[in-house]
Amino acid sequence: SYCYLNKYYERFIERGVEILMITSTDAQQSKIVVQDLGLKMPLLSNPDCQVFRRYHTGQALGAPLPAQFVLDKTGKIQYKHLFSFIDHNASIDQLLLKVS
Questions:
Q1: In the chain, what's the furthest Cα-to-Cα distance?
Q2: Does an H or E element contain 82, and which?
Q3: Could you give all domains of the chain from N- to C-terminal order, each with its CATH number?
C-alpha cells in the first residue's frame, strides 16, 4: 500500500529506483492527497484512467484497482502485482527483491 511504499521510499531511492504513484484524481485533488498523506514519492494525476487501462489494472465500481509494477530503464515490465481480495498488494520485500 502507499503507506508502506512511503515508509520505505528511501530504500528504493538508495537502489537507484524511483517510485511513482498514479491516481485517478484530478490535479487539484492530487495536491491535497500529497499534503494530507505526507507523500515522499511523486504523485501523477491520471483522471481519465488511461494509464490504468494501458496496464490492465482492472476496476471495481468504475474506479481503477491498485497495482504495483516494476519497470526497467527502457519501460519494460519486470514485475507486476495486480490487486486481489486475497493478496491486496505486493510486499515491500517482494518489490525490493525485484529491484536488487
A1: 37
A2: strand 77-82
A3: 2-99 (3.40.30.10)
Q: What is the pLDDT of residue 26?
A: 92
Q: Count CB neighbours of 100 within 10 A.
A: 7
Exposed / middle / buried, residue 99 (Cβ in 10 Å: 0-12, 13-18, 19+): middle
Rounded to whole angstroms, the Cα distance separating 83 from 7 reads 20
Q: Produce one character per residue of 20-57: b if its CB has 16 or more CB atoms within 10 Å, e if not.
A: ebbbbeeeeebeeebeeeebebebebbeebeebeebeb
| β-pair type (43-45, 59-60) | unpaired
Residue 1 has a pLDDT of 60
What pLDDT digit, counting tens, does each position of 26-49 carry? 999 999 989 998 989 888 899 999
Under 8 Å CB-to-CB from 97, ≥6 apart: which residues? none
The identity of residue 79, as a single letter, is Y
